[in-house]
Amino acid sequence: MLTAPASALLPGMPPIVSQVTGTLGINAVPVCVAVAVLRYKLYDLGRIVSRSVSYALITAVLIGVYVGLVTLAAAVFGGTSSLSVAVATLVAAALFQPLRRRVQSVVNHRFNRTRYDAERPVESFSRRLRDEVELEAVRADLLAVVDKTMQPAAAGLWLRELGAVHR
Q1: Rounded CA separation 3/27 (Å)
Q2: In 10 A of CB 61, how many CB atoms?
C-alpha cells in the first residue's frame, strides 16, 4: 500500500508503474480488511448481512415516502415549496423508528432464525410466570425453557430455602 505514493515520487518512474502500484494499493485495503474479519472472526457475518438488508430496505422505503410526499405536494400546490419539503422530511423522520423495528423483526425472522425461535419460548414463559405461584412448577418450566432455547448439556437450578420472615 505504501508503494503507490513512493513510486509516484521517484524520478524517472514510468507512469504505468505508478498506476499499477496505486491500483494494487487501493484494492489491498478491502482485501486486508476481509482477511482480518474472516481470519480472526471479528464480526458475526449473519448479523452484518441482516443489518445491511434491514437498512437497505428502510432507506428505500423512506426515500419512496419522501419522494412520494414531495411529488404529491407539488401536484396539489403547483410546485415544490419549502413547506412541503419540510413536511415530507418530518414524516420520513417520524416513520424511521417504527419502520426500523418492523423491518428488523421481519429480517430477523428470515435471517436470524435461531434468535427468533429462542424468543418465542421465553415470551411464553414470562406470560406463564405472571400467573404461576407454585415454586416447583416455575422451576420445571424454567428448566424446560432453558433446555429448549440454550440446549445445554446439563442444567440445574439451585433455590435457597426461604425461612419465615421476621419483622
Answers
A1: 13
A2: 16
| Cell matching residue 91 | 414524516
pTM of the model: 0.47
What is the pLDDT at residue 165? 46
Query: From CA 136, how far away is CA 143, in angstroms rounded?
Result: 11
Q: What is the C-alpha to C-alpha distance for residues 61 and 67, in angstroms, rounded to an integer?
A: 10
CA dihedral 121, 126, 127, 129 (to 10 degrees): 120
- Asked whether 142 and 122 are in contact (CB, 8 A), the reply is no
Q: Are 73 and 87 in contact (CB under 8 A)?
A: yes
d(CA 21, CA 8): 9
Render pLDDT for 59-94 as a digit per residue (tens, 0 to 9). 999 899 889 988 888 888 777 778 888 888 888 889
CB-based burial of residue 88 (10 Å sphere; 0-12 exposed, 13-18 middle, 19+ buried)?
buried
Low-confidence ranges of the chain (pLDDT < 70): 1-11, 42-45, 112-113, 115-116, 162-167
